[in-house]
Amino acid sequence: MQYKVLIPTSGTGSRLGELTAAQNKALVPINGKPALAYIIEAYPRSVPLVVTLGYRAQEVKPWLMEAYPSREIEFVLVDKYEGPGTSLGYSMLQARSQLQCPFIFQACDTLLTESIPEPDMNWVGGYTMPPELKTVAAQHYRTQSCNDEGRLLSINPIGTADFNYIHIGITGVHDFEAWWDALSMLYSKNPTDSTLTDTHVITAMLEQQHTFAVVPYAKWYDTGNPEALAETRAYFERV
Predict the structure, then answer these.
(1) Over the range 103-139, which residues count as b (16 or more CB within 10 Å of their CB) and which as e?
(2) What does residue 111 show for φ and ψ, rounded to 5 degrees?
(3) Terminal-to-terminal C-alpha distance of the chain
(4) Which residues contact 214 (CB under 8 A, 6 or more apart)?
């Protein structure tokens, strides 16, 4: 089907501390190549990419153009990516006109080695957390609850003890018009809300009776915080 992939690289990656003081987090090296390369190469070459640029855009865009000269990439410059009035939601809104079609929202700190489905329906990726690690993981990540048919019931706040999956920052958006309407509504309510993310949009769409299937992943590699990045690097060095 005809779809695109949205990859936001405009944020500062503050959770990585000194690692992103002079580098965009999408370009943090994993076994000799940027994290962003693993993300792009997980998708068919025919699928267009939409990449938001902000923090250290002068490094991200040239690298992409040199590394993938034949790939169709649309760049969206985000004017506010640091300080008051900035959020993932705001960055996503800047790409609205480029994404008037089904698309996949792909966080730039989520690496997957399993196949990624097309957005022929609404879906969210969820990590199947080993039972012995669920309590610890819930203190660091948003989670997902679903019914017995694998239909998403809720995105839960960090710290929720009872859940089915870890929310890993990848979402197939088939109902793109509803997505943009929900995000615009949420942003207009509080333009200074720096916490506005994809999870709030999914929650709003659930409240509007849109459905999302959960796509379970047995493996997920996070590069968004120092501890997870170290584990991800260790894995890719082994393989």
Answers:
(1) bbbbbbbbbbeeebebbeebbbbbbebeeeeeeeebe
(2) -115, 135
(3) 32
(4) 123, 124, 125, 126, 144, 146, 150, 151, 152, 164, 165
3-state SS, 61-95, equals HHHHHHHCCCCCEEEEECCCCCCCCCCHHHHHHCC
CB-neighbour burial class of residue 61 (10 A; exposed 0-12, middle 13-18, buried 19+): middle
Which residues 6+ apart lie within 8 Å of 124 measured at CB? 144, 152, 155, 167, 170, 171, 172, 202, 212, 213, 214, 215
Tell me how far apart the alpha carbons of residues 215 and 171 are, in angstroms, rounded to a whole number.
9
Please tell me the number of Cα atoms within 13 Å of 187 on its side-chain side.
Answer: 18
Q: Are 47 and 95 in contact, with CB atoms under 8 Å apart?
A: no
- 182 — pLDDT class (breaks 50, 70, 90): very high
Query: Taking the model in full, what pTM does it have?
Result: 0.95
**Cβ atoms of residues 154 and 146 within 8 Å:** no
Give the separation between CA 165 and CA 97, rounded to whole angstroms. Answer: 32
Burial tier of 207 (Cβ tally within 10 Å: 0-12, 13-18, 19+)? exposed
- Average predicted confidence (pLDDT) for the chain: 95
